[in-house]
Amino acid sequence: MFSKIFSCSSSGLSCSTVEVQADISNGLPSFSIVGLGDVSVQESKERVRASIKNTGFKFPPTKKVINLAPAQIRKEGPAFDLPIAISLLLASRQISVKNLEKSIIIGELSLTGNVKPITGIIAIVEHSKKAGFKEIFIPYENSMEASFCGGIKIYPIKTLSQLIEHITDQINIQPIKHKKIVTQRIHRGIKFEKIIGMAGAKRGLQIAAAGGHNTLLFGAPGCGKTILCRAFKYLLPPPNTKEVLESTKIYSVCGLLNEQTPIISNRPFREVHHTATAAALIGGGQNPKPGEISLAHNGVLFFDEIAEFPKKILETLRQPLEDKKINISRKGQTITYPSNFIFLATMNPCPCGYLGSKDQNCKCTDSQIKNYQKKISGPLLDRFDICLHIQKSSMGDLFQESSNPQNLTDRIYNASLTQKSRFNHNNADMNINEIKLHCQLSPENTDFLNQAAEKLKLSNRGYLKVLKVARTIADLESSECINQLHLAEALQYKSTSLTV
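Below the sequence we write its predicted structure tokens.
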């Protein structure tokens, strides 16, 4: 007796359709699962056995073989419990159902037959829709996050018996109603324009938010670097529907979604402590999960006091910052996670922090200052589009009201819309062809930039980053062309040294 139904295997954000084939034949009682399943898949034998018995059905006492095809794809996790149980009941002729050729069944079973939630449900639903399936049966507790996926009937299942009654036409479960994604801007925390003083730094961060530029802030302790960065998230324009789904998929794979937060509707802001490991930062583990750089995708990754991070950890950021993705290789497979984020970092200019300060004298030696600043390598420093030297505000300014009536968020949002209409991404992500097309300069401005680049000893990457920042400055001013003032301001932000 043979049966076959369809399920889905997920590896990172990638999914594959899996045939769950069951064969029951005469022979000594045995139960085996083949098809390259991991330990949790093999353990499903006991969960399925108990679930079938406790649901009121008979567990077949003969030889039973479950094949998860195709066999060359590694299967992980307990999500095959539910399809294995249904396939066994079909093969033993205990239930007879309608055609399930266009259905996906997935879910973990408890010993009592209850269906438990799984991770990565949005990626699974999206794959099922693209693969041509018409309906999918998922755990009830995953229904909230799955409701934001349209184009396929999604049935929430609480128990094994409920699924059996539905597919045998004893009851009729209503599919989940599709919910519209509503994006929003972050409103928690201090508003950026309420921060007193530091006009130059706020201008630089405004440009960074508008164009998606990586930014380094350095200055004396207590000058306001951290509060500026934490208020930076208030400036970010709201994500679009595609970006919301991308971020939600990543958080779903990590199991970070719940009923209170079923979807990531605003841009993520991930603040990483300097004790974080490489695996926590870039992702990894036995079954590779996304790290902080992927959880910050479409948002912000913030390193407070970046010089306190081990140099080995910092160097792992060079490739993701350039490629906007991270490849993790484990057990003969390579999993790719996106990592397109704005990188914000703060640091002191020296070990004591008072180099260049007007209030306190620096007590560090030249060698101490040099060794401290060398913790940020040249290639990593070159990946910052904007470097801001933060000066301490006067104490008298703290009692003044903010005198900036201009709505920063509206200007940034309009500049972001200009970029999206131009090439559907931020200026910071422009490739060489887009730079040639949208950053054209007059002969006089070209000579000006070339002379400045030679004097500042800019690398080729640094030269292109100046053009990208200048393009963002022009967009904030609704200017079609990049003029010399835009270039001069962009060059001001491109520092090749932290010495002040």
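The chain has 20 helices and 18 strands.
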